[in-house]
């Protein structure tokens, strides 16, 4: 199992990532406002399944890659650092989109809601690259098997993401209303998260050189 401090640090990183703009948050807020909380929760269940799928793929893929390719950790970390810098720029660039912008959606049955939530997450490249860029830096040689550590860290990310998104689904209308009336708050949120992501990218690049 990963060390406790690694689990806590990864949970904080996962919290920062789930609060950054992305298709999942936009879809869940829009669905909850347009069709109600129940529809948002069903959609969230589909999103959660997408997280599980990516976690398993990343865990087994990272394990196989590290065993087969020398210096694989460094390559993944460097690529992840560049990706996080790109996310930071997307958050703070002029005209950057707030995650709380709502799209009009038609009402759909529960099965379709679940499928759309799953596909929204599955087709979101941010999630796939997030697992490949973030998981390796929290896996340590003395923390046990790579696969077991990857699964534990992935489970932490899923729990954090589901908890935050559930709060967003339940309070979607209130959150969107407040932020529409206070656009400065959304701007501050984007800059704070952009700074956090840039700092994490620097840390990853520095560790990759060690």
Short summary:
The chain is mostly helical and 210 residues long. 79% of the residues lie in helices and 0% in strands.
Summed over residues and divided by their number, the pLDDT gives a mean of: 75
User: Structural class per helix/strand content?
Assistant: mainly alpha
Based on DSSP secondary structure assignment, what is the total number of beta strands?
0
Number of helices: 9
Shape label: globular
What would your notes on this structure say?
The protein has 210 residues and is an all-alpha fold. The chain has one domain. Helices cover 79% and strands 0% of the residues. It has helices spanning 4-18, 23-35, 37-68, 72-92, 110-122, 125-134, 146-170, 172-181, 183-209. Helix 3 packs parallel to helix 5. The radius of gyration is 17 Å and the shape is globular.
List the helices and strands and how they pair.
Elements (H helix, E strand, L loop, with lengths): L3 H15 L4 H13 L1 H32 L3 H21 L17 H13 L2 H10 L11 H25 L1 H10 L1 H27 L1
Feature tags:
mainly alpha; 0% strand; globular; 9 helices; 79% helix; 210 residues
